[in-house]
Amino acid sequence: MITMGDVARIAGVSASTVSHVLNGTRKVDTVTRQRVEAAIEETGYRRNVVARSLAAGRTHTVGLSISALTNPYFGSLVHAVEQALSDAGYVLIVGDSHDHVESEKRVTDSLLDRQVDGMIVAPAAGSERLTLPEITRTGTPLVLIDRGVDIGCDQVGPENFSSARALTKHLLDRGHRRIGVVRGLAGISSTTERFDGYCAALTGRGIAVEDTLVLDGESSTDVAEREVHALMSGENRPTALVSLNNAMTIGTLKAVRGLGLSIPSDVAFVCYDDFEWADLFEPRLTAAAQDVETIGTTAVELLLRRMRGDDGAPHQIRVPTTFHHRNSCGCT
Amino acid sequence: MITMGDVARIAGVSASTVSHVLNGTRKVDTVTRQRVEAAIEETGYRRNVVARSLAAGRTHTVGLSISALTNPYFGSLVHAVEQALSDAGYVLIVGDSHDHVESEKRVTDSLLDRQVDGMIVAPAAGSERLTLPEITRTGTPLVLIDRGVDIGCDQVGPENFSSARALTKHLLDRGHRRIGVVRGLAGISSTTERFDGYCAALTGRGIAVEDTLVLDGESSTDVAEREVHALMSGENRPTALVSLNNAMTIGTLKAVRGLGLSIPSDVAFVCYDDFEWADLFEPRLTAAAQDVETIGTTAVELLLRRMRGDDGAPHQIRVPTTFHHRNSCGCT
DNA sequence: CTGAAAGCGCTAACAA
DNA sequence: TTGTTAGCGCTTTCAG
């Protein structure tokens, strides 16, 4: 391996000068610089970022713990984050927590061990007692993404409550009174907030929330499919359904299709989360779409600010969703 | 920051002993070990992987350069790779090349600077003259993924030629003679091979490949949509279409829908690449599905082998696709 | 079974 | 404008 020392020797300067031309950290005479550059060119020297990180005390690296890389939603998130970071000269290390605290702990520990300069976490349920305290303890700048947690740190996520309420209201406006709901994974804020939005819409019209109409799809499309299947094949089924995240939507649609029911004539449907290819689904889904791009870039902005030393009060940012009015709700 | 020295002092041993209990690299008396473990516990010590990497000469890190993180196909690939690596004790650093060599060069340079122990690359067009040689020069183990390049190194990708041929044949078997094709990005092997498969099917039946029926969607669904729109709204349009990757499929379907045509009655359709939610599309697509999981894990296997020092002849692995016979082709 | 000591390749005072 | 030097925190011979 060619080191800075080699380059220095060939250029007839000190290692420190080579370092400075490489980093532009102090003025170097044009001639000397050219000699150094020539030597670099000649040897094909590459800086060793590991050594650099150790000496400088920062790695220019940011860790991201995400809960499900296979979910296209998170795919876009990773992309947005990666983009914003690389623009700022950082690289991204990703880990998948599979929405499981133990797994998340492994991921974040490994990230911490690698001396990441900052960390973005989409917390799993239970995160606040196992992994987040440890991150805070090390003093690593942290921003939470997607889901909130009751802890004093920067957070950015989608607007949940009023978006879910708006979806539900839309169904009410169309005359539906028995509206089923399919919730996502229990124990995370987005599930709770969206469900609260659903409840608020109902009670706002003087309709009680009926337990039998509340389904838990956990995080799995399969579970959602089973639950919806059961509900929709029973007596006295609802005339409309609202799904609270994209995985639940898939499960719901499969169940409905499996029963030979059609949307919206047999049952109206609206959902939280949009799909890139929503236009190709049949029926076209009325949905509240998250602005994943903005969520990702905002998270990075907040993080960079902290990494630069800002220690003001934590920000909690909610990115609004967009209502896509298509026809699964029964409107034409 | 608490260092190994601190732990050593508290435990009343040398740093070297602490290192050995941490890594299990030599026998340590039970009592001493316990003292060390107590000190670690007490101080909340975390190993510094950066220092460790510098001293040991390896980072336990693998780089992945991917062409489009937003494409769900690559999302699953990243997931499979991350999983396999983390099982083997490595962490993944991802970079997005946006299917552009210059961008790819930046990504891989940064990965190389960070001393990754190995690298997985989904090469962009032009990779073989700009970025791959540099990787090879540094001696970093490399495996190519998704697309092949004419260079002597490990590669793993989907089967392209005969899968595309089979799709096209299926259309021919149903009596179609004028079959349009929508190609992906020019200059990458998967595009070429799949197109060759299409041609082989036609010429195998004595049908000439007609230029006007060959569309280039580049990498963009928008371009694909425009091209298909033009073709299908012209005179003498084909009776069937084959799309050669998922982005092209989206574009094609949008164009067809936009024209008010229906599949398969107005035009039959088959595609390379499946969608996770293919069942919810209307019509349900007849497709050749890649086994992304296997591609990812195989790539990691090959890489780990190289990283362990194997320097046998390069492997070129083709993972077969699965033919999903649904009804966009016109079969019931 | 354990410790001392020499680096890994680089950065950043401090001097000159 | 440049060089010298002392680390960064760890691994790993080599002795004991």
UniProtKB/TrEMBL annotation, chains A, B:
<dbReference type="Pfam" id="PF00356">
    <property type="entry name" value="LacI"/>
</dbReference>
<protein>
    <submittedName>
        <fullName>LacI family transcriptional regulator</fullName>
    </submittedName>
</protein>
<keyword id="KW-0805">Transcription regulation</keyword>
<dbReference type="GO" id="GO:0000976">
    <property type="term" value="F:transcription cis-regulatory region binding"/>
</dbReference>
<keyword id="KW-0804">Transcription</keyword>
<dbReference type="Pfam" id="PF13377">
    <property type="entry name" value="Peripla_BP_3"/>
</dbReference>
<dbReference type="InterPro" id="IPR028082">
    <property type="entry name" value="Peripla_BP_I"/>
</dbReference>
<feature type="domain" description="HTH lacI-type">
    <location>
        <begin position="2"/>
        <end position="56"/>
    </location>
</feature>
<dbReference type="InterPro" id="IPR010982">
    <property type="entry name" value="Lambda_DNA-bd_dom_sf"/>
</dbReference>
<keyword id="KW-0238">DNA-binding</keyword>
<dbReference type="GO" id="GO:0003700">
    <property type="term" value="F:DNA-binding transcription factor activity"/>
</dbReference>
<dbReference type="InterPro" id="IPR000843">
    <property type="entry name" value="HTH_LacI"/>
</dbReference>
<keyword id="KW-0678">Repressor</keyword>
<dbReference type="InterPro" id="IPR046335">
    <property type="entry name" value="LacI/GalR-like_sensor"/>
</dbReference>
